[in-house]
């Protein structure tokens, strides 16, 4: 017996629903791209600090005109340029994600009340940069930064480059730069990588 039922076309997805799904997919893609960009920036900053420490060590041990110092200086400049480019891209993506996330949070707050505001403040506080760098490490990094600035200031105010003040300033700047780079590579970057890995979906 033949079926007499009429063939019906599959239901069509409304255009607003399709646009909403495409926008959600784009937001997820950009958020993932922002996370990857932040990781790349941290990797580039690690390379910058590693080459900076290698440059200081090569200049002090082998001399500033040695091949090792020249190679370390070239790697340092290349890593610095890469970090600057990645930082620009990551800043653009993060600003887009933050502004878009703020609009979504406001929409959820208008829809569900103050609970969305409380959840947003809690999630924002958990991602604070102070959670990455502890108080002891933070004060050590500030001290090393001041030591670098003091060394550069002494070099700038020295009457001659090879004077006693200039040599002391260079030594202070090298000591501060070397220890700052070592702490960044072996303390700050691993903590940030752990936090980034834990917050990944």
Automatic annotation (TrEMBL):
Domain of life: Eukaryota
This protein's record includes keyword Membrane: yes
Residues spanning the membrane: 36-56, 76-98, 140-158, 178-198
The keyword Transmembrane helix is annotated on this UniProt entry: yes
Keywords, in A-Z order: Membrane, Transmembrane, Transmembrane helix
Name of the protein: Uncharacterized protein
Organism the protein comes from: Eragrostis curvula
């Amino acid at each position: 017996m033949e079926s007499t039922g009429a063939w019906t076309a599959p239901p069509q997805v409304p255009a607003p629903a399709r646009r909403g799904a495409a926008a959600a997919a784009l937001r997820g893609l950009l958020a993932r791209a922002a996370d990857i960009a932040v990781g790349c920036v941290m990797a580039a900053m690690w390379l910058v600090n590693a080459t900076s420490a290698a440059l200081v060590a090569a200049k002090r041990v082998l001399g500033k005109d040695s091949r090792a110092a020249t190679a370390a200086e070239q790697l340092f400049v290349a890593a610095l340029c890469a970090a600057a480019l990645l930082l620009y891209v990551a800043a653009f993506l993060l600003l887009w994600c933050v502004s878009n996330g703020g609009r979504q949070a406001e929409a959820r707050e208008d829809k569900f009340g103050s609970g969305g505001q409380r959840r947003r403040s809690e999630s924002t506080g958990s991602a604070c940069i102070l959670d990455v760098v502890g108080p002891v490490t933070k004060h050590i990094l500030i001290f090393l930064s001041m030591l670098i600035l003091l060394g550069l200031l002494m070099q700038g105010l020295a009457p001659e480059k090879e004077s006693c003040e200039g040599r002391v300033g260079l030594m202070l700047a090298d000591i501060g730069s070397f220890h700052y780079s070592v702490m960044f590579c072996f303390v700050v970057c691993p903590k940030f990588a752990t936090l980034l890995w834990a917050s990944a979906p």
